[in-house]
Amino acid sequence: MLSSTGPAQWRPIDASSEEITNLLRAWSSGDEAALGRLAEHVYPELRLMARRYMMNERQGNTLQTTALVHEVYVRLVEVTKVEWHQRAQFFAMAAQMMRRILVDAARARSSRHGSKSEPR
Q1: pLDDT, tens digit, for every residue of 8-21?
Q2: Which end of the chain is more exposed for a tag (fewer CB within 10 A), N or C?
């Protein structure tokens, strides 16, 4: 759910930090249903984070905000050796993953462009 603090200033309404932390802990303990509930709570914040990172990307970037969020989600779901302690830890890891995905995408674009300009 989003709320407006002014024209063109949208921000997610924060779910309780305690609720997110409890869902993270339940998920870490093997509660698969907690993952679904967690996703509902964190998706708006992940979208906002991704949108902020995408604003700094060059024109011509083919990666969409939604695709970035989904890629991060897939990677987070695969993380099994983390004992989640709090909401901030989760979002810090998500932010780091977003940066890595964007750097990897930029490197891939750069290598594709570089190989086209080099004579064979």
Answers
A1: 444 444 558 889 99
A2: C
Separation of alpha carbons 92 and 24, rounded Å:
14
Tens-digit pLDDT profile for residues 20-39: 999 999 998 889 899 999 99
**Contact (CB, 8 A) for 12 and 44:** yes
Task: Give the total number of structural domains in the chain.
Answer: 1
* Separation between Cα atoms, residue 92 and residue 41, nearest integer Å: 16
**Using CA atoms, how far apart are residues 45 and 74, in angstroms rounded to an integer?**
16
The highest-confidence range among 38-52, 78-92, 100-114, by mean pLDDT, is 38-52
Domain that holds residue 7: 2-117
Query: Is 76 within 8 Å of 34 (Cβ atoms)?
Result: no
Q: Which residue has the tokens 């924060």?
A: 14
What is the reported pTM?
0.74
